[in-house]
Design goal:
Strand order of the largest sheet: 1-2
Radius of gyration: 19 Å
Strand content: 5-15%
Number of helices: 5
Number of strands: 4
Length: 128
């Protein structure tokens, strides 16, 4: 079995926060669905987990990334603040640039994969 290596970019900020593909995906899905609940559901996470993650994203930086509208006649929802839009664009740009910069190395890794190895099957244990 062969396949392309998957690159995941995670940035560890000095304040201890982590910005990675999961938070970027949540931001993108909030834009797509207009709701934190629906964005979380699209990622297979509970309503509570999605709200906790959204709250964490809002507290990670000096400005919030996500705004919410309370329900009522027109219904509730969520979206990205101007800072959140800039943050999502930066995440996408950094992801794309890192993939481009590492393309040759990722191709090499793909070509060197063992077709006999299956992660977690015990064959990788050091018996020496």
């Amino acid at each position: 079995m062969t396949g392309s290596p998957h690159l995941s970019l995670r940035i560890d900020l000095a304040n201890g926060a982590r910005l990675g593909p999961g938070k970027a995906q949540l931001l993108a899905l909030i834009v797509e669905h207009g709701s934190i609940r629906a964005a979380g559901a699209a990622m297979g996470m509970s309503y509570r987990r999605a709200w906790l993650l959204a709250d964490e994203i809002n507290r990670m930086f000096r400005e919030p990334s996500i705004f919410t509208r309370h329900g009522g006649k027109s219904g509730g929802g969520a979206g990205l603040t101007p800072f959140g839009e800039t943050l999502l664009a930066a995440c996408r740009r950094m992801d794309g640039e890192s993939r481009k910069a590492l393309a040759a190395d990722l191709d090499w890794l793909e070509s060197m994969q063992s077709t006999d190895f299956i992660a977690g099957d015990g064959k990788a244990k050091d018996e020496g």
